Amino acid sequence: MTSTTTQQTNNWLHLGISSWTKMASLNLVALLCFGLVVLVNSYPSFSRHENQWTKLILTHHWPKTLCTMEEVSCQTADKFNYWTIHGLWPDKGQSCNRSWHFDVNDIKDLLPEMEIWWPDVLHPGTNEFWKHEWEKHGTCAAVAESLNSENKYFAKALDLYKKVDLDSILKKFNIVPSSKYYSLDNIRSVIDSFYKVKPKIQCVSPSQGEAVQTLGQIEICFDKEYQLMDCVEYEEELPNSIDDLFVFESAQQSEFSVCDESMPIYYPPAHEEY
User: Fold this and answer.
1) Angle at CA 75, nearest 5°, toward 117 and 68?
2) Which residues are CB-contacts of 109 (< 8 A; sequence separation ≥ 6)?
3) Catalytic annotation present for 60
4) How far is residue 245's CA from residue 132's CA, in Å, rounded to a whole number?
5) Would you call 137 a catalytic residue per the annotation?
6) Catalytic residue flag (residue 225)
């Protein structure tokens, strides 16, 4: 074999090995990319499965009662003599994405309405309440495409709140703040008969020696299509309420619980002296 032939043979061998190496490398890269795609696609599915809610709870609270619970002067409560938004809570999951931080700039267009219908009665002039609600509840609601941004979440809550118009409906049927007492059935029957769904009505339990509970919070529930639905399926499930500790962080001895059927309810006027 001549030196020229030998050189050509070596070149062919080198070329073949190089080609095989390149193909193997490309196949390995393709396999790794495919695995990465599968991993990325499967993780959100798992996350969505774990936190996939079936019910949204639109929670209203009565500012006067909230301030009384917190034992603060809460002068702004006099300004809010109507039911305001506490939150829009999915029935599954809390703080589902701790890296998705609240940014008030994302809801600049909503701020005028937020300050009216979703005010922070306890910490006026701050965004802490909204930040808390987004990071604890909004990030879980966001598994739904219609709620998958901060703006969508808060806008939907405002929309549902205005559609329900709880404050007006209670007034229409003469459930108004008063020194007189109501029964739980008085309040529940109005909501039940008008909206055709069961609400969850919560009170502050009486202090020792008292025999009257104070109306504080009303939950109205929606399904995934934003249609009204019962907040509870069975009567025995009523006491299982969702705690939202940010709002009640200083309330050591009293908190909201489902109102007692056997006890009268006080619905305190907003402008009453503390």
Assistant:
1) 90
2) 151
3) no
4) 10
5) yes
6) no
Query: Which amino acid, 35?
Result: G
Catalytic residue, candidates 132, 133, 135, 150:
133
pTM exceeding the 0.85 threshold for the entire prediction: no
Tell me the one-letter amino acid at 110: L
Q: Given the residues 60, 86, 135, 150, select the one marked as catalytic.
A: 86
Distant-in-sequence, close-in-space partners of 244: CB < 8 Å, separation ≥ 6: 59, 86, 87, 89, 136
Q: What is the per-residue DSSP string for 178-220?
A: EEEEE-HHHHHHHHHHHHSS--EEEEEPPPTT---EEEEEEEE
Helix (H, G, I), strand (E, B) or coil at 139: helix
**Which residue out of 60, 137, 150, 219 is catalytically annotated?**
137
Other residues' Cβ atoms within 10 Å of the Cβ of residue 266: 21
Tokens, residue 181: 């007492």
Residues 40-89 pLDDT 10s: 343 333 344 456 899 999 999 999 998 888 766 666 666 889 999 999 99
Tokens of 75: 């002068």
